[in-house]
Amino acid sequence: MFDELIRKLRQLEQGVKVPIQIPLDENGCFDRKCPWDECGVEFKVLFEDWEVKVREEAAYCPICRHESPATEWNTPSQAEYMEKAAMAHLMGVVDDGLRRDMERFNRQQPRGGLVRMSMSYKPSPKPILVPPDVADAMRQEFVCEACACRYSSVGAAFFCPACGHNSALTTFAKAVESVRTAIRSLPTITGAIKAAADADAAADAERQILENGLVKLVASFQRVAEATFLALPNASSFPIRRNLFQNLQESSDKWREATGKGYEDLLDAAEVSDLRKFFQQRHLLAHVEGIVDQQYIDRSGDHAYSVGKRLIIKDSAVLRLGDLVEKLAAGLRGL
Ligand SMILES: [Zn+2]
Ligand SMILES: [Zn+2]
Questions:
Q1: Deepest in the core among 56, 93, 128, 144, taking most CB within 10 A?
Q2: Cα(37) to centroid of ligand 2, in Å?
Q3: Which ligand is located closest to the Cα atom of residue 45?
Q4: Is 237 in the same domain as 140?
């Protein structure tokens, strides 16, 4: 009697593919969420690239580089939506089987007899499909240098969701941007700390933000200079020692060996001299808590300080350094 229903249910037992239309945003991007509890960041990937470039076994979080199979990156609203869509599909299959069984039963009833039997079946109401909220338009867009996957996140992203590649270039650009933003926000930040604590705490915070900004800019530049150097077609002919790019003169010489041009060809004399001073200041901040020694004065040519004084990092200096490393990194990319 329920042959058709049973046949349909058997088919379901074999596994079904439920056709689901996942809503995308107006740019064709697909909302994703890092499945690692500690991170859980939401980001977007161009749907086309998610389908073509992301392997089934692994996708990567652009912020923490957590690795999980491609099926595990649904946002909560997508997971709910897919569950409802799957349910709707299954109910449709069951309803269809029951309806056919009823029709056959009714057809088989003898007509014109004394007793007429018929059965009817009322389909179950289908759950309503609610598309996930289309999240805000993307804020920062990235294209992976290694596999060309297009993705976006709110704030900096460090890894490609498709191949896990870490982009030194992208990280550098974002570091410069975030240091500038921090400096622009200094009055707000120190104002808030002054209100919540006191003027001492606010001054400490300001000094820390400026010193961190300088250290971060030098470190990100060193990294991008090394990555750009290693991408030169003839890089393998010029072996580099560990931490070579922490040394401004030595790395400039290495660039000159490989390309015929050093940092002095990309910056003017005043710029090179300032950059040298900032590199030496980073060294003091990173190793001796900013206390000036003779080596600093000799190497930087900065006679504003005597031995034993502590560095004063001004916002104008950090902004100048940001402009210098940006200019130099762009020049190196063009070599
Ligand atoms: Zn993550
Ligand atoms: Zn990639």
A1: 144
A2: 23
A3: 2
A4: no
Does some domain include residue 257? yes
What pLDDT does residue 115 have?
55
Q: Who has greater pLDDT, 87 or 66?
A: 66
Q: Tell me if 283 is assigned to some domain.
A: yes
CA of 18 from ligand 2 middle (Å) equals 29
219, part of any domain: yes
Integer CA distances (angstroms), 106 to 1, 93, 110, 245, in order? 11, 20, 9, 85
Ligand 1 (ion): residues with CB under 5 Å are 34, 39, 61, 63-64, 66
Distance CA 40, CA 289 (A): 36
Name the residue with higher pLDDT: 117 or 53: 53
Question: Looking at residue 71, what DSSP letter applies?
Answer: G
User: Is 123 a residue whose pLDDT tops 70?
Assistant: no
Centre of ligand 1 to C-alpha 67, Å, is 8
- Which domain, by its residues, includes 182? 167-333
Same domain for 131 and 274?
A: no
Checking if the pLDDT of 126 tops 90, the result is: no
Helix axes 186-196, 199-230, angle to 10 degrees: 140
Instruction: State how far the Cα of 187 lies from the Cα of 193, in Å rounded to an integer.
Output: 10
Q: What is the pTM of this model?
A: 0.64
